[in-house]
Amino acid sequence: MITEFEKEKLASKLTNEFTFMVNNLQKEKPEKTVTLNVHEENLYWCINWDSSKTWKTEKYLKECFQIQIWNIDENYFLMGEHRIEDIFEQLSETYIMYENKTIKYFNSNIDKIIEKTKEGILEAIDKDFDSDY
């Protein structure tokens, strides 16, 4: 049985690592104003940046990369996705998915999670957006 302490420990470690990663991303992409929103109690993190892409309304899109962890019974899932929001529409693309893992597994693989998240964010920032979608 997973204790609340183990989940809180994971959330705290991820927040610390995501904060460090966001600071590094800001140095690598100073024009993007990269920020982190954290909701540890919900096992949710959102990295935002200033988008220079437009879609249907010709206004700049809101782009972010979300990481969330949830459980079904004793199994935990982690998903990292790039989200794009226009005024009326939203798209998302999954970059990271871990299924049926334990909190212990996530605690042991934080470096891999951070690395895949950073790769996903850099790809999403630089990716051309197909506005015909």
Description:
This protein is α+β, with helices and mostly antiparallel strands. It has helices at residues 4-28, 103-108, 110-126, and strands at residues 35-39, 44-54, 60-72, 75-85, 90-101. Strands 1-2-3-4-5 form a five-stranded antiparallel beta sheet. The longest helix has 25 residues, at 4-28. The N and C termini lie far apart (44 Å).
Helices and strands in order:
Blueprint lengths: L3 H25 L6 E5 L4 E11 L5 E13 L2 E11 L4 E12 L1 H6 L1 H17 L7
Antiparallel strand pairs: 1-2, 2-3, 3-4, 4-5
Helix pairs in contact: 1-3
Task: Summarize this structure briefly.
This protein is an alpha+beta fold and 133 residues long. Helices cover 36% and strands 39% of the residues. It has helices at 4-28, 103-108, 110-126, and strands at 35-39, 44-54, 60-72, 75-85, 90-101.
Helix content: 25-40%
Tell me the β content.
35-45%
List the secondary-structure elements in sequence, H or E: HEEEEEHH
The major beta sheet can be summarized as: 5 strands, antiparallel
Number of helices: 3
Identify low-pLDDT runs: none
Structural class: alpha+beta
Strand order of the largest sheet: 1-2-3-4-5
How would you state the average pLDDT, rounded? 89
Count the E strands: 5
Q: Gyration radius, to the nearest Å?
A: 16 Å
Please tag this protein with its features:
five-stranded antiparallel sheet; globular; 36% helix; 133 residues; 3 helices; alpha+beta; 5 strands
